[in-house]
């Protein structure tokens, strides 16, 4: 496994549409492993393949409940709406308020090629939407309602 | 996606839940933290401190906000008021947070609540507060003593006035001061299973820092520990968490082996288990409370402590159970009350009670007492207790029992630790936080005619 370089906004690859994964080759498995390591290394909660320069429809997410791997993910259900702060590993140093559904259900393949479904609320629902947007070349800054100033995090006693 | 957790927004959710939805603060905090179990301990502590502190100090925070806002707090949108409270709390009480960070974060919270138009208002008030936070003038203690105490300690005026009806100014001030300080949690050694010394040793081996209690030989103060549930001595049932004042209830009851004891409002089972322990496996404690949740709490306590002489039942203390009439040697009536003796413990009790509610409670307390007395055998003992400091709910209800239910007060000095004995034995004791190192418990011992 290896940590890959995370592409930053301005890089053309982030604006392209990713392609369906037709076969889960050893290379795809390696990519997924690298994406997870890269996400953890950057303290992120989600990462999409185009962010490491690969235009494949692959997403990894971990909002603190263990890693979720989505290949060719599709949102099949969503409801509710909540505006909250969001940031992106490809847009470092900025944050914005983005309106997202509060509940999202996705369908995808896992790394074994089996069909899986996940339901997420709150942060997980937000992460599903944010990462799947990347597969379409969409970055949250395109849809945020407001940019928020970023302050250094403060450690409290 | 980066980790978007905004700790202040989580604290704000809790504060909104308490002040807008009227939830209980400890429940709001627990429910919220449950959703964020993946956060590290520090973040969780930050959320709790900020939410609890804001709730606890709301009266003082509102006073400060009103000094610097053209719009009075009562006229603000509740969500905006809570953002201001949360931020002024950081400015005043969290010295490590730079002013600019606290105020910027407030702007984000205003966005999150979708009041973008009010951002400059919030910003203006907060900058004004920040500039003057070191030189805020509080009400004059001599000229306006009630306002002074109310704002300094964030206790509603009517509660200060209520205390003042029973106590002089200095006592009330000492009480307010004690409420504002955190005191260590106390535990009661389960003497059926272990000696106090052995328990102290076991706790120290498990990494806890302990100290003997103030009044009772089997009370221990837990000064430092991680999670109580995580201590193996807890799981083994070697102790029960209980304030030292509540331990006095079983002392004052002074049960004899073989007694039938009825504990009418028993959850979470502290008194029940203490009495069952004193019966050393003999007799029976019928331990009741009104809801499944409360009954389950009692069952958990009783099972964990390994007590066999307890019968836990779901029952409403207001409904007379004819099968129990004239059966009990001792009845424990630790009745629902205004909680004015424990307002330091839960940040929001002081906002949730009112004079009107106290009037309703007085009726309820008397109804429970009527029933309690019927369960007693001739010569049986009623132990009446509350966690409030309010003569109406305490001394006056004792008088009412004497005048209306034919009860007699019994001397209690001989059951109390020496430090708590007074020259005048009225058959009851009112503990005062600050004067006594306990919660503000009241307990009385009354006897039914032979």
How would you summarize this macromolecular structure in one to three sentences?
Chain A has 157 residues and is of the alpha+beta class. Chain A is built from 2 helices and 8 strands.
Structural write-up:
- The complex is a heterodimer of chains A (157) and B (450).
- With 157 residues, chain A is an alpha+beta fold.
- Chain A has a single domain, classed as Peptide Deformylase (Alpha-Beta Complex), CATH 3.90.45.10.
- In chain A, 18% of the residues lie in helices and 30% in strands.
- Chain A has helices at 26-41, 122-134; strands at 46-48, 58-61, 68-79, 82-86, 95-100, 103-109, 115-121, 146-148.
- In chain A, strand 2 and strand 3 (68-79) form a beta hairpin.
- Chain A is globular.
- Chain B folds into four domains: 7-135, N-utilizing Substance Protein B Homolog, Chain A (Orthogonal Bundle); 145-180, no CATH class; 185-241, Alpha-Beta Plaits (2-Layer Sandwich); 244-448, Vaccinia Virus protein VP39 (Rossmann fold), CATH 3.40.50.
- Chain B is 46% helix and 14% strand.
- Chain B has helices at residues 7-19, 25-35, 41-56, 58-68, 78-93, 99-112, 119-132, 145-152, 157-166, 169-180, 196-205, 232-235, 244-253, 270-278, 292-305, 349-352, 355-375, 395-405; strands at residues 185-189, 209-212, 219-224, 239-241, 260-263, 284-289, 310-314, 328-334, 376-386, 407-409, 428-430, 442-448.
- In chain B, the strands form two sheets. In chain B, strands 5, 6, 7, 8, 9, 10, 11 and 12 form an eight-stranded mixed β-sheet that branches.
- In chain B, helix 4 (58-68) crosses helix 7 and helix 17 (355-375) crosses helix 18 (395-405).
- Classes of the chains: A alpha+beta (157), B alpha/beta (450).
- Chain A binds chain B through residues 42-47, 63-65, 83-89, 95, 97, 122-123, 126-127, 130-131, 140, 146, 148-149, 151-152, 154-157, and chain B through 1-6, 9, 35, 37-39, 42, 45-46, 49, 94, 96-98, 100-101, 104-105, 107-108, 111-112, 114, 116.
